[in-house]
Design brief:
- This protein has about 180 residues and is α+β, with helices and mostly antiparallel strands.
- The protein has a domain of about 120 residues: OmpA-like domain (60s Ribosomal Protein L30, Chain: A).
- Helix content is about 35%, strand content about 15%.
- It is built from four helices and four strands; from the N terminus they run αβαβαβαβ.
- The protein has a four-stranded mixed sheet.
- The longest helix is centred in the C-terminal third of the chain and has 21 residues.
């Protein structure tokens, strides 16, 4: 009898301390999205993340560009290669940089909100590098260019929809005083 009571107490103790496992939340099928791409970004890229990022403000260092605003280069989701329809923008940027040899330019890579912060900083840097490579190939001096990635932290559109995400996948070029 003592063995039966002892076994019962032992079983009750085990159940009390182990309890039931936590139930995983189920997401309805209509809310899931599967994304597939041809290219991926190397998440092991060495990227420094500036946790204290603040919105860029006009400073003495930035100079106004005498011509029209430089075009923006847009990218596809999870891609960093310059699209064929963006080659004209690259040509216009290259002409502007070549015409202003005394001015340095910053190439700013940006991403939409999809992905981790680290992933988006790396992707933004790869987009900026891709634009830099295209400009150097077009004859622009690499000495006039610096690169920066804002990742997802510098959106032009803050809504969470496809149109805004498209606008945020971009590279902007800013003229700086040398």
């Amino acid at each position: 009898m003592k063995k039966l009571i002892f076994t019962g107490i032992l079983a009750a103790t085990l159940v009390a301390f182990t309890g039931c496992g936590e139930k995983q939340a189920e997401v309805p099928a209509e809310e899931t999205t599967e994304v597939t791409t041809d290219e991926t970004v190397d998440e092991s890229a060495d990227v420094t993340i500036d946790e204290g990022y603040e919105e860029p403000v006009e400073t003495e260092e930035q100079v106004s560009y005498d011509g029209d605003k430089l075009p923006i280069v847009y990218f596809d989701f999870d891609k960093f290669d310059v699209r064929a329809d963006q080659e004209g923008a690259i040509g216009d940027i290259g002409s502007a940089i070549a015409a202003n040899s005394g001015v340095a330019f910053r190439i700013e890579g940006n991403c939409d909100e999809w992905g981790t912060e680290e992933y988006n900083y790396a992707l933004g840097l790869k987009r900026a590098k891709s634009v830099q490579d295209a400009l150097v190939k077009a004859g622009v001096s690499v000495d006039q260019i610096t690169l920066i990635s804002y990742g997802e932290s510098n959106p032009v559109c803050a809504q969470s929809n496809a149109s805004c995400w498209r606008q945020n996948r971009r590279v902007e070029v800013t003229a700086l005083q040398q």
